[in-house]
Amino acid sequence: MRLPRVSPAGYRRITLVALVALTAIVVTGGAVRLTSSGLGCSTWPACEPGSLTPEFSLHPMVEFSNRVVSAIVGLAVLATVLGAWLRRPRRRDLTLPALGLVLGFLAQAVLGGLTVLFHLSPVLVMAHFLVSMLLLWDAFVLWQRAGRPAGPRAPSVRAEVLLLGRIVAGAAGLVLTLGTVVTGTGPNSGASVVTRLPFDVRSVAQLHSDVVLFLTGVTLALAVVLRMVQAPPRARKRCLLLLALIVAQGTVGYTQFFLGQPRPLVGLHILGATLFWLATLALVSSLYRDPTAEPTAEPPPESMAAATRPLATAR
Ligand code: HEM
Questions:
Q1: Per-residue confidence (pLDDT) for residue 301, from 0 to 100
Q2: Which of 54, 98, 182, 269 is geometrically suited to a Cys-Cys bond with 81, CB 3.0 to 4.6 A?
Q3: By alpha-carbon position, which residue is closest to atom 11 of ligand 1?
Q4: How many domains is the chain partitioned into structurally?
């Protein structure tokens, strides 16, 4: 029997579905925790005995929506592996991240189960969120690679600028991690007072926002440098987009802190954090050459060509 083939364009669409589904599940998962809807359905896989779908009320609807999105994520990550295998030409640099998505999905299923078993232990809730961010990273890289020829990409900016971009990405990861510590310490961890992280919520929120201020500074510096070296417009635009998201997310963060972490705002903060992470990944990616982009009509001036000269090849 001849196996069906997947075209490169078809495979790229599959990877995009996986990326979107993995983004959606962070938000629906957050909604389950914030509305305490984890037990909104009394059985599995049907929501209620004899009924696959939920009754029309908040907790069952939220829990059921999360189940539907989880099923879509499961199918989508499986499709990335199957698609990588059926894709012609087959590429190892696509198969490996696709397998990573399936492993990550299984790890999340185990973590999710343990979280319930250990009564929403804050450390497990933190791990669940952070593994989601790693999965998004993997899905993003896969989607990007699926859209261009195999092989490493040279940086589109010089090494010092690339380093600044990596500092931005590192600080972004630290902000996300500290955010989960604030949640684990505060009232929205889902856990009882006894099992919350033993920190002072004001101090950890302060640390979280201090790192945000540092991040704002380095992202601003990167935006200025990218303009000075006339980096590709793609990189400059993405840096400004990230800056705008940091400001928006910071505004939501301070507001929710001073209002005592109301749940709708915390939900918005989770959505913002997810978009912020995607914007960070997009920024780092834009610091490398895009082999599918049209060559620019005018070559950069000699001095600028020197400033943007690639120093090494990577990824
Ligand atoms: C780039 C900016 C920011 C990002 C990416 C970010 C990200 C995050 C993340 C990922 C969480 C954990 C969400 C969860 O696990 O449910 C969080 C929680 C939190 N963040 Fe931020 N944050 C930012 C800025 C700020 C700022 C400036 C403040 C001001 C104090 C702040 C206050 C909080 C608070 C109070 C929580 C705990 C919310 C809860 O009760 O669950 N954030 N943040």
A1: 43
A2: 98
A3: 179
A4: 2
